[in-house]
Write a structure and sequence with these properties.
Strand content: 5-15%
Shape: globular
Helix content: 40-55%
Distance between the termini: 62 Å
Number of strands: 4
Largest sheet: 4 strands, mixed
Order of helices and strands: EHEHEEHHHHHHHHH
Strand order of the largest sheet: 2-1-3-4
Radius of gyration: 18 Å
Length: about 230
């Protein structure tokens, strides 16, 4: 009789990086135990499993730790090959998807003044390029009819966890990040993703997440004062 896999996910409830892994595990139907960690106090398990970077999330599979959210996502997809597959088998198609992986929201939230203006312009430029590039993946012009919990891929996971809370970010900084007129495809894509039952299942409470983003912003701004 095969020994049942033991999977523990160490994370933080409001972290988009943790949410990536939670979403991937749920999409694959993989049972796991979630262990909430305190970022201000690194537990002995965090120091044991990630002694170099001491960051979250950490996936522990049968006692073996895997760190960095993107690495964890690929590990999950390669270990559990059931649907949905997060990356295609073809190396060129995989490379095209990896090309579109980017961050950018954080700097808009954690800066002010000229630095925030630059971060915002950089984000808008990236979103413009992403909007144009995604037309290759959604030739019909809209992803809405085709997305469901059985075919979500790596880009879907990253988009809905990175930009899913964008309205909270907009509320905190007073800047409209995703504009349906400026980014029609991205807007419809995000709407389709956030309406998925599995996304609603892992979505943090609005007021709790809003308070966290306010705290992160204020802490970052205070830390930047000479």
């Amino acid at each position: 009789m095969e020994k049942e896999d033991q999977i523990n996910l160490h994370g933080m409830w409001g972290s988009t990086f943790t949410k990536r892994v939670e979403l991937a595990l749920k999409l694959k139907g993989i049972p796991y135990e979630y262990i909430e960690e305190d970022l201000s106090y690194k537990s002995q398990l965090v120091l044991k499993y990630n002694p170099v970077h001491k960051k979250l999330p950490i996936l522990v599979h049968n006692g073996k730790p895997i760190i960095e959210s993107l690495i964890i996502l690929e590990y999950i997809d390669e270990t559990w090959k059931n649907a949905p597959r997060f990356l295609p088998d073809d190396p060129y198609e995989r490379a095209k998807i990896r090309f579109w992986l980017f961050e950018g929201v954080g700097r808009v939230v954690t800066t002010d003044g000229e630095a925030q203006e630059k971060a915002t312009n950089d984000l808008f430029e990236k979103l413009k390029v992403l909007e144009e590039g995604m037309r290759e993946f959604f030739p019909g012009g809209s992803p809405t009819p085709s997305i469901n919990g059985e075919n979500m891929g790596l880009l879907d996971i990253l988009m809905c966890t990175l930009f899913g809370p964008y309205k909270i970010h907009e509320e905190v900084v007073g800047i409209k990040m995703i504009d349906p007129e400026r980014n029609p495809l991205l807007s419809s894509w995000l709407m389709a993703l956030t309406e998925q039952p599995v996304m609603k299942e892992i979505k943090p409470p609005h007021e709790k997440l809003l308070a966290l983003v306010h705290f992160i912003r204020q802490n970052a701004l205070q830390s930047s004062v000479p």
